[in-house]
Specification:
The complex is a heterodimer. Chain A has helices at about 5-20, 35-40, 50-55, 70-75, 95-100, 115-125, 135-145, 155-180, 180-200, and strands at about 45, 65, 85, 105-110, 130-135. Chain A is an alpha/beta fold. In chain A, strands 1-5-4-2-3 form a five-stranded parallel beta sheet. In chain A, strand 2, helix 4 (about 70-75) and strand 3 form a beta-alpha-beta unit. In chain A, helix 2 packs across helix 6 and helix 3 packs across helix 8 (about 155-180). Chain A is elongated. Chain B is of the alpha/beta class. Chain B has two domains: about 1-30; about 35-135, Oxidized Rhodanese, domain 1 (3-Layer(aba) Sandwich). Chain B has a five-stranded parallel beta sheet with strand order 1-5-4-2-3. In chain B, strand 4 (about 105-110), helix 7 and strand 5 (about 130-135) form a beta-alpha-beta unit. Chain B is elongated. The chains are: A alpha/beta, B alpha/beta. Chains A and B meet through helix 1, helix 2, helix 6, helix 7 and helix 8 of A and helix 2, helix 3 and helix 7 of B.
Chain lengths: ~200, ~160
């Protein structure tokens, strides 16, 4: 086998390897399937609407709420402080840009139980294990928080605290979503700036 | 033989082991495939959701995977069914069963959120025949209408 033949054989083999390696321009998951499975079936990754309402009312700056519904639905009514990344555009952007934004927890929500959970699984596949889902989505939010009423005669301290949180979350939700779009954005921006200042961040 | 090995030594030493590893990796079933965006497509178009009637009209041997949780019922018990605990869905035996099934594999669960998460994992592993049984009650349509309060004046910080 002369040098030319050897060189051809090497090139041919390399070509075969390249043909078999999927050289797709798109990214793929970075974690192993078994690791991902244990993360996505972790019961703690489901948050109730009451847990989310409590975080919103406390204006917790360590959370990022991600609304994966369409921009139209987001504009009509969305959770206070939420950012909109529609599910169908989720992989058009680099997940690190919005999931690794420095917030400790990402909370996904949609209208129901599908899109937000798909989004959580995708985030988990890219190695962002700090992801959560608001169980039941906006339908459960409306059902539990917005339509929250108390009809009983006596109320325990615990029930009172829960009802108070729901009322405050409902007030924040109604106030923000009743604003015209331009003011809504201004209000959200102003809230973000304020929380940065409280955190000691620099502008 | 000796002469043959000497002649093709460079190929045996470097190229063949790499080629072998690449082939093993390509044919393996227990890892994620590339191109996440393409594989998540059916969840965007909702093509991965099937009603009982749609499942019945699908061709090929149907495999129903009942994810054991919340006492979910299986409305497709006429077909080949297996009950699998969510944490063992990636066991080799189940993956082989899914791969060898010549037809649709339907995930059934009382909790749609669990099926959705498992669907992403399996579809990203390259299983293109996975569907979620959904009778249209997973609630991705907003049932409530928000009524703006025009008197609302939030306090700006």
């Amino acid at each position: 086998m002369n040098t030319r033949e050897k060189f051809s054989a090497v090139l041919l083999s390399l070509g075969l390897i390249l043909a078999l390696i999927p050289l797709s321009g798109n990214r793929s998951f970075t974690v192993k399937p078994h690791e991902m499975l244990s993360e996505v079936i972790d019961e703690n990754s489901w948050l109730t609407v009451d847990q989310v309402a409590k975080l919103i009312v406390a204006e917790d700056s360590t959370i990022q709420i991600i609304d994966v519904r369409s921009p139209e639905e987001f504009k009509t009514a969305s959770l206070p402080g939420a950012v909109n990344i529609p599910y169908n555009e989720l992989l058009d952007r680099n997940p690190s840009a919005y999931l690794g934004s420095g917030k400790a927890r990402n909370i996904f929500y949609s209208n129901g139980d599908l899109d937000a959970n798909y989004a959580l699984a995708l985030a988990s596949g890219f190695g962002f294990d700090n992801s959560f889902v608001m169980k039941g989505g906006m339908n459960e939010w409306f059902n539990t928080i917005i339509n929250s009423t108390f009809n009983g005669e006596k109320i325990s301290a615990r029930e009172n605290a829960l009802f108070e949180t729901r009322t405050r979350a409902k007030k924040m939700f109604n106030e923000i979503n009743s604003l015209p779009d331009s003011l809504k954005m201004q209000f959200m921006k102003s809230n973000k700036n304020a929380s940065k200042k409280l955190d000691g961040g620099c502008e | 033989m000796k002469n043959f090995i000497k002649k093709y030594g460079i190929i045996f030493t470097f190229i063949l082991p790499v080629l072998l590893l690449v082939i093993i990796r390509s044919l393996g079933i227990d890892h994620f495939k590339p191109d996440t965006k393409k594989l998540y497509g059916p969840s965007v178009s909702r093509a991965n959701l099937k009603t009982t009637a749609q499942v019945k009209s699908m061709t090929g041997e149907k495999l129903i995977i009942n994810l054991q949780n919340s006492g979910s019922e299986n409305p497709l018990s006429d077909y080949k069914s297996i009950s699998v605990a969510p944490d063992s869905i990636l066991a080799k035996a189940y993956l082989k069963l899914i791969k060898s099934n010549d037809g649709p594999v339907i995930l059934v669960s009382a909790d749609a959120s669990l099926s959705a998460r498992i669907w992403i994992i399996l579809s990203q592993m390259g299983f293109g025949n996975i569907f979620i049984l959904d009778e249209g009650n997973t609630g991705e349509t907003l049932k409530y209408k928000f009524r703006p309060d025009t008197m609302a004046e939030p306090e700006l910080k």
